[in-house]
Amino acid sequence: MRISELSRRSGVPVATIKYYLREDLLPKGAAVSTTQADYSEAHLQRLRLVRALVEVAEVPLARIRAVLAAVDNPDLDLHTVLGTAIFAMSATPESHPGDPAWDRAAEQTDALLAELDWRVTPDSPARVQLTRALAAMQALGRPATPEMLRGYASAAHQAAELDVACIDPEAPREEALLHAISLSALMEQSLSALRRLAQEDVSAARFGAAPARTGKGPGAR
Amino acid sequence: MRISELSRRSGVPVATIKYYLREDLLPKGAAVSTTQADYSEAHLQRLRLVRALVEVAEVPLARIRAVLAAVDNPDLDLHTVLGTAIFAMSATPESHPGDPAWDRAAEQTDALLAELDWRVTPDSPARVQLTRALAAMQALGRPATPEMLRGYASAAHQAAELDVACIDPEAPREEALLHAISLSALMEQSLSALRRLAQEDVSAARFGAAPARTGKGPGAR
């Protein structure tokens, strides 16, 4: 198909497609003339993935390249590519060893993961992300309790089982990974939105039935 | 205390504190001379909240002002302020009514929330955020199934109960809200990190035991 049809079928403007081509996020089409190229269904699928990663997952371009490189690397087994993708989709925050709040938080993270016995690599960015959030709670003087962390871990594992259940290891490799990667980001958004909606429901039940936006103040806007 | 001690106790650089003062994210201290001001424990607590919202929750300054305005508004009941805060902490994405994927996703959102019977306001930003993620799945040709959404909703509600359980309605109003607002953001980060760690565990169990980063390719970096 021509770039105009690729744009129509993907809903991505031609100018954006050309930008992705320049940025090597989308492979070049087959040249049919000096000014025209022909694009395949594979281009359409890749374009939809890139769009989802940029627009929905808000993954920086540099990290999208790493994800696509893993997807396209036939030497990697499925678990490795999934791990690569999950790692690439998350930045590793700065560590602050020696800071008392950070060190207490790092102990909480290690103790929780040891207790859960999850198979996670020591250098997983998510481990540092968890420590960073727990350190901020420590600094606020409201550290997370082990019971709280066990509860979140159970909710998170329940979600992760649904995430991974969406991956079809029998499907063509690239398709399985494209979907796994984008769905992981999209499900994170869904879960986050559902949690905010659930907070409103639980808060209404616990603190009164007034809908959250009937008050005065900024929320009423 | 002087600004230097405020900086030392909060771990926030003096230059950053001065920036927050200029941006009205932190109330001015009591002037003790033309060049010095005195800051209280309340300043320290507010500074820690602002820092957590900026650094950890990554809430834009303009929305932090809305959150602080709600915290400081004595006319708002606890549920209203919590709702205001949750709303202020989430941007409302653009809607695309008329787009087939969007419209199918909006139907999924409405059907799910009707089935769950959660008390959420119709204009909750999280409702649009959920629709946006579901629309992207529709566009990928991999729509979320009702079973999947029920599963995520159950995990999200489990997390939200833990979130709200952290709020002490008997505590001094400002303190309860400061903690509720920052903890909500911090718990979102914790939950997100735990989900990524759980994905690694579930993926290892399902697709092989190789740790995610032992492969070649970008993930091995």
TrEMBL record, chains A, B:
Gene Ontology terms for molecular function: DNA binding; DNA-binding transcription factor activity
Annotated coiled-coil segments of the chain: none
Keywords: DNA-binding
Keyword Secreted attached: no
InterPro entries the record matches: DNA-bd_dom_put_sf, MerR-type_HTH_dom, MerR_fam
Any Pfam family the entry gives: MerR_1
Domain of life: Bacteria
Ranges for domain HTH merR-type: 1-70
Name of the protein this chain belongs to: DNA-binding transcriptional MerR regulator
